[in-house]
Amino acid sequence: MKKNTIIKSALVASGLLLLFSSFKSDKPEQKPIDVVKPFDQKKYLGKWYEIARLDYYWEKDLDNVTATYSLNVDSTIKVDNKGFDLQQGEWEESVGKAKAVGDPNEGRLKVSFFGPFYSDYNVVELDKDYKYALVAGESTKYLWILSREKTIPDATKNKYLKKAQELGYNINDLVWVKHDKD
Questions:
Q1: Is residue 33 part of a domain?
Q2: In a structure prediction context, what are the per-residue pLDDT tens digits for the chain, which is 182 residues long?
Q3: What is the domain extent for residue 152?
Q4: Residue 29 lies in a domain
Q5: In a domain, 17, yes or no
Q6: Is the peptide bond before 32 cis (omega within 30 degrees of 0)?
């Protein structure tokens, strides 16, 4: 009986390993990317407006999207994302946390909205005043252009689009976010 339990456990573990490795293989290849250095987490805190994104399931049909970052007691970063769901006609909110990966003076973070599961959050471009940011995710499926204001200057937008393209992102698929609600 003990042997059957061990065999069943091994089969379950093998199945889970196969399942999780299949998720990993669906991600488009992405070369390791350079992130902003030096990066000041405290300057990055506050409210950001999402200017553009590569659309994905969790933000589908959302406009007026913002992300507000604040420091938690345990030195992680509280992530409070809000957006207006155009299909439902109501505001959506998702709260998670972020933490530095490796050197806290680099713009390499991990973000979680679902317990122990984290995704990459790489600040790859950032102006010196921390007003505009280009953020790359864990694959070329995830990209955001952020601003402290509801708009972004054309020169900054063009610079970030060029950088995204150099990193392998399809900028033609970007969703440009409207900010017309308070």
A1: no
A2: 433 333 232 333 323 222 233 334 344 455 578 999 999 999 999 999 999 999 988 899 999 999 999 999 999 999 999 999 999 999 999 999 999 998 999 999 999 998 888 999 999 999 999 999 999 998 899 999 999 999 999 999 999 999 999 999 999 999 999 999 97
A3: 41-176
A4: no
A5: no
A6: no
Judged on CB neighbours under 10 Å (0-12, 13-18, 19+), 141 is middle
User: The dihedral of CA 43, 47, 48, 54: what is its sign?
Assistant: positive
Residue 161 CB partners (closer than 8 Å, separation 6+): 171
Buried b (16+ CB within 10 A) or exposed e, 21-33: eeeeeeeeebeee
- Secondary structure element (H or E) that encloses residue 71, with its range: strand 62-71
The count of structural domains within the chain is 1
Question: Tell me, what amino acid is at 181?
Answer: K
Residue 34 maps to a domain: no
The dihedral formed by the CA atoms of 149, 155, 156 and 162, expressed in degrees to the nearest 10: 140
In angstroms, how far apart are the furthest CA atoms of the chain?
69
